């Protein structure tokens, strides 16, 4: 196996020398960027590529590359980058080579091109940048629609974001459940049954119990007709907001003094230690 090594190195030096000599005698020149119109029904347009030179193929602004297929992946280098974009770089590694390339966009459009290396041709100009444009109406219409394919990189990113969002939601739900459980365990200690009223009048009206927590005041009873609820301040009564359901009044504040009334029936209540 040892005699083979010098042969390979020598061949590599000879090839490099030949390439350098060709470049000196026939230097490649980049063309100005141009636009190529692609139709599925027509012959694929030819893209002029230069030996060891990069030609950038650019999809329409609305599209990104979803997938790329090429006939010769040995003598040609294809690079779409690590992030989904509208750019593909192609570079021939050998002279006079040709291959085809098929590009599928995220909108479902297909672009087929013929790549040809031109370093041995009299015209040494190669395409440095080529903008692709669809000519078929259906392909143009797809540009205005939402993508039908998601590039693998974006799909992985979306999965990671979804997983992170799900984990954050689960953590938030767990925190809320813990908070609710703590509140439920502590809630009985927050209930205060410190109201007084005329029990005879209350029974006549249907009032059974009055209590409060740290935010609300509650009145429960069995009423034939729903009494109006008033708050007493400075000896004057004023209607207040409350929710009533199945005999339970829920007042969104702590009441110190108030009364229930139906017609001429009335029962006052006062919180022990509350302001008069």
From TrEMBL:
<protein>
    <submittedName>
        <fullName>Conjugal transfer protein TrbG/VirB9/CagX</fullName>
    </submittedName>
</protein>
<dbReference type="InterPro" id="IPR010258">
    <property type="entry name" value="Conjugal_tfr_TrbG/VirB9/CagX"/>
</dbReference>
<dbReference type="Pfam" id="PF03524">
    <property type="entry name" value="CagX"/>
</dbReference>
<keyword id="KW-0732">Signal</keyword>
<feature type="signal peptide">
    <location>
        <begin position="1"/>
        <end position="22"/>
    </location>
</feature>
<dbReference type="InterPro" id="IPR038161">
    <property type="entry name" value="VirB9/CagX/TrbG_C_sf"/>
</dbReference>
């Amino acid at each position: 196996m040892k005699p083979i090594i010098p042969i390979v190195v020598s061949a590599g030096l000879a090839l490099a020398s030949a390439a350098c000599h060709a470049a000196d005698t026939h230097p490649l020149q980049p063309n100005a960027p141009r636009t190529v119109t692609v139709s599925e029904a027509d012959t694929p347009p030819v893209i002029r590529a230069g030996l060891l030179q990069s030609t950038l193929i650019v999809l329409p602004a609305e599209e990104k590359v979803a997938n790329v297929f090429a006939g010769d992946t040995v003598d040609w280098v294809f690079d779409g980058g690590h992030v989904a974009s509208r750019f593909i770089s192609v570079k021939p590694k050998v002279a006079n080579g040709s291959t085809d390339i098929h590009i599928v966009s995220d909108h479902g459009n297909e672009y087929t091109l013929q790549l040809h290396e031109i370093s041995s041709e009299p015209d040494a100009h190669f395409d440095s940048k080529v903008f692709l444009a669809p000519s078929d109406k259906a392909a143009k219409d797809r540009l205005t629609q939402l993508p039908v394919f998601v590039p693998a990189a974006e799909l992985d990113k979306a999965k990671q974001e979804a997983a992170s969002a799900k984990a954050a939601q689960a953590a938030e739900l767990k925190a809320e459940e813990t908070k609710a459980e703590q509140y439920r365990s502590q809630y009985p200690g927050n209930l205060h049954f410190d109201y007084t009223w005329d029990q005879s009048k209350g029974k006549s009206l249907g009032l059974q119990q009055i209590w409060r927590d740290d935010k609300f005041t509650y009145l429960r009873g069995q009423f034939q007709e729903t009494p109006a609820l008033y708050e007493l301040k400075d000896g004057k009564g004023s209607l207040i907001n409350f929710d009533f359901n199945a005999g339970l009044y829920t007042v969104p504040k702590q009441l110190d003094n108030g009364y229930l009334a139906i017609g001429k029936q009335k029962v006052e209540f006062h919180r022990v230690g509350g302001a008069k």
